[in-house]
Every structure is written in C-alpha cells, then in structure tokens.
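Design request, tokens follow.
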C-alpha cells in the first residue's frame, strides 16, 4: 500500500470522525433542548395544578356596608398562601377626562373606584381610595373577610350624576382581581360577585 493511499484513508477516517463528533454534538444539543422544553411544560402544568381555588362571597351586609369573604378552598397540595390581595376592578366604561380643570383631573378619575363597591379605606390595609386591600396571609381551608362599602360619587360630580351614582351599577357585578402569592409564585385571578340590592 502506498503512502498516498494511507494518507487518503487517514484523512477520510478523520473526516468521518469529525462528522460523527458533529452529529453527536448536534444530537446532544437537540436532546438538551427537548429536555428543557419538557421541563418547562411540566413546570407550567404543575403551576396550573396549584392554581388557588379562591371563593368569594358577600357577607354581613347592612345598609351600604358589608364584607367580601375570601375562602381558600384548594387544591390541598398548594398549602397556605403567603399573601392574598384584593383589588376592585373598574367597569369597562371610558373614564378619560377630556377637559381637565382644577376641580377634576385625570389623576382624580384614575384614583376613583368606578364600580358599585370599594374596600373600606384603612381597614384590612386598604388604600385611601378603597381600590386595594393589604396583602395578608391565608391558610388552606380557611377564609377571612375584607370590609367593603358602596362607592360614592366623585367629589367633582354634581346634580343628577351624583344623585343617580349607584343606580348606574344596579345590574352590574362587583369585579375583583385576586393576587395570590406563595413564596416566589404568583397567581392573578379575576372574579365577579353579584351586586346585592340596596
């Protein structure tokens, strides 16, 4: 066998070896990507399986005041929540202030709760506008009330608008966003409650 033929065989073997190594690297990379995708799917499935089962109910209503009872009903594998925070969600109307004045600004409109109820300011850690409660822990299988009151017309509203303020919400639900946290995990849930008659 000549030296040239031996060099050709060696070069071909080296090329095949390099090709095989490249194929192995590509297969390993593809396998890692597949494993990462499957792990992501499993994380998402597990997170969905642990979505808190939050039940809301109106309780203790008298006059224009009452409570929203928040109950953590499951899943049992979730355990206790580090915190639950409630937020009143505005109706779907447009609340832009087209002609701001010193009496009414866009900030006034944004701060106002445009719905039938707000949280009682200062109670249960609620902010001054009654938009959000404080973030409070809740145990599995337990509940806790959050004080609510009927909203009032904005300070800039007068006459028939102010007089008929609650009438506009008679048949609209109370819309609540519930933010649940457990450690680093967060779930945001939307709930609606029937607006009780006055």
């Amino acid at each position: 066998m000549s030296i040239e033929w031996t060099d050709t065989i060696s070069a071909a073997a080296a090329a095949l070896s390099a090709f095989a190594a490249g194929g192995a690297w590509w297969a390993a990379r593809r396998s890692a990507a597949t494993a990462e995708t499957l792990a992501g799917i499993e994380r998402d499935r597990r997170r969905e399986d642990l979505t808190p089962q939050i039940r809301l109910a109106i309780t203790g209503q008298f006059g224009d005041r009452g409570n929203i009872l928040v109950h953590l009903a499951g899943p049992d594998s979730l355990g206790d929540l580090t915190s639950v925070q409630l937020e009143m969600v505005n109706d779907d109307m447009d609340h832009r202030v087209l002609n701001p004045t010193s009496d009414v600004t866009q900030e006034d409109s944004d701060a106002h709760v445009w719905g039938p109820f707000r949280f009682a300011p200062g109670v249960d850690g609620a902010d001054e506008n009654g938009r959000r409660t404080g973030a409070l822990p809740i145990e599995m299988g337990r509940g806790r009330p959050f004080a609510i009151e009927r909203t009032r017309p904005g300070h800039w509203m007068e006459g028939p608008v102010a007089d008929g303020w609650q009438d506009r919400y008679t048949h609209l639900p109370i819309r609540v966003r519930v933010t649940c946290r457990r450690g680093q995990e967060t779930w945001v849930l939307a709930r609606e409650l029937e607006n009780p008659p006055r």
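Comment from the thread starter after seeing the answer: thanks! The chain is about 30% helix and 30% strand.
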